[in-house]
Amino acid sequence: xxxxxxxxxxxAIIAMEEEYDILxxxxxxxxxxxxxxxxxxxxxxxxxxxxxxxxLFFQIALLSMTxxxxxPMNLLKHWQKWGNLFDAIGLSAFAIQGALYASKMGHPLSAxxxxxxxxxxxxxxxxxxxxxxxxxxxxxxxxxxxxxxxGMAIGLKIADSPAELYxxxxxxxxxxxxxxxxxxxxxxxxxxxx
Length: 194
Description:
This protein is mainly α. The protein is 72% helix and 0% strand. It has one domain.
């Protein structure tokens, strides 16, 4: 639920930064909150119709986006500070959820990792593309690596019990927070010199 709220708000704020109208705010928010899960479902064999069984989550996402749209603009300036934390929480929660889906369906480790990554980052990629931005996860910032780690921990049965899953959630969230706080980067190789 926290991940859904965080990603819905993230999409709504980016839509407002790009000066989209209210319909654009809702579309970008919904796509961010549910896009990764929809892609995952297609790839691991969960019926697409399962997405529509999440009525409560859709309502929560819509309420979150409405609150953000009606929020005073001077308070939205503080979003960036808290937005990264909510994004880290959302990444961790969704990556674990995606890995658990694939693992429970008996898929191999590779599929569990892909499900974790797509669920954790898929909505953000769609959001950035629709907003005309370079997807953050495809640049040098460490983001998808944490979803891969979550998928590996679940796929290899390192995190299996509820206590281990909650610990994994805290670890992945903390690693994501540390990576943007200390500006950790993955290696980049440039073809063209500037």
